[in-house]
Amino acid sequence: MRRAVVIGAGLGGVLAAAALAPHVDEVVVVERDELPDGPDHRKGVPQGRHAHLLMPGGLAAMDDLVPGVDMRAHLLAAGAHAVSLSSGMVVLTPEGWFRRWRHDSHHMITCSRGLLEWSVRTAITRSTGNIEIRRAQALELTGTARRVDGLRLGGTAGLTELAADLVVDTSGRGSRVTRWLNSLAVTGLRERTIDSGLVNATRIYRVPPGAEDFPLTMVQANPYEGRPGRSAVVVPIEDGRWMVSLAGSRGAEPPSDPEGFLRYIRALPHPIVGQLVSRATALTDVAVSRSTSNSRRYLEKARDWPEGLVVLGDALATFNPAYGQGMSVAALSARTLDHHLRRSDVLTPGLARAVQRAAATHVEAAWNLAVSQDVLYPGVRGGAPTAVDRLAARYTRRVMKAATGSYRVASALFDVTGLRAGPSRLLRPSTVVTALSGPPLPPLSAPPLTARERQLLNSFDSGSDGRGPAGPA
């Protein structure tokens, strides 16, 4: 009998279990914390109370991993929202306002992290019959430097061992896999952390009457000014609510008190977020998190790698949550595991190393996107911008500028940020030419709102910043 064991029952863990289920007799998911019975916050997710975006690439990977389930329809039925990157957002970038194009494409999913995890977990466990979620704590790997053959667990039954043909670590940012491998004499594992000091502060609001269909609204941070970054996003989530998340890098951290939260909003480069919040009813206190650094384990570069062990999700790499990549990278990596198992067996020599290297390609694309921006903020820890970083930043600015007035470039950018394509998508000749020559359409002087949206926003209080209502698009 073939058995696979997954460490962690978060999103990455249940997706890994879905990838494994068709290829083994039994999948045991080991989870330290008690899982909620419904769409509630889970203790082991530091960023769980903040805004989460499931990008188009991640949604497509989930569909592939759960045959017979239309994951988008399943999530929408649970209360999530589908938001088009091309037409369903109002976004102020460092290079100006993005247009809202007529193309209804590049859909991402927005909802609370609790709803997303619960919905995906129930879809997977109901569609498979060989996944067991067991409450216990993974204490260490068993086996040798040549092959991992299980886990040593702690739980209500005391210390036990669980044999496995394949162990997949998806235990998250706090994974102890490096220490576990060192105890098996697997050494020389390289890690890197880039920390801009980002702090997230989030509050849930009741959507004001008439604003139920108002587009997702975002004011992005500017990494090119040499000052700490400030950003905000108003995300529609389930049950007629908005999740309002603020983010500030070191030196511009958002506060945790309600009045400070509102002052921070009013100090943003544009009053649109303040206008929206002014008529919304706060439903929660301000939740603050500092678990936001980019951290990566370069396990694919290890000189020696044991058979029987794969590391995925946040246990492999974490990203600044402002870029909305972590969940989608986990889904893409789980799909990679499935693809390799379709061509081999869990005991095939070299399988674990092949999966680890393939998963690193998804990590690399997301890592470069996040780090190339974060490394530019003052006070960043873990590395200073290199000449390559600065060159990439200059080209990225040109692409962003072109995307404000060219659907062709905007679509390429959405392909990359939505994790449907790699960064090379931005180097196609048509994109490069437009990026270098500039956008064919002039910049917008105000948010791209419909007449109804503009009327609604102008009826809202613009706050105490004195900037007044939004002008015409």
From TrEMBL:
Gene3D superfamilies: FAD/NAD(P)-binding domain
GO molecular function, one term: monooxygenase activity
SUPFAM superfamilies with a match to the protein in the record: FAD/NAD(P)-binding domain (SSF51905)
Signal peptide from the UniProt entry: none
Keyword Plastid assigned: no
Region (Disordered): 436-473
Matches recorded under InterPro entries: FAD/NAD-bd_sf
The keyword Lipid metabolism belongs to this UniProt entry's keyword annotation: no
Keywords: Monooxygenase, Oxidoreductase
Protein name per Swiss-Prot or TrEMBL: FAD-dependent monooxygenase
Organism expressing this protein natively: Streptomyces ortus
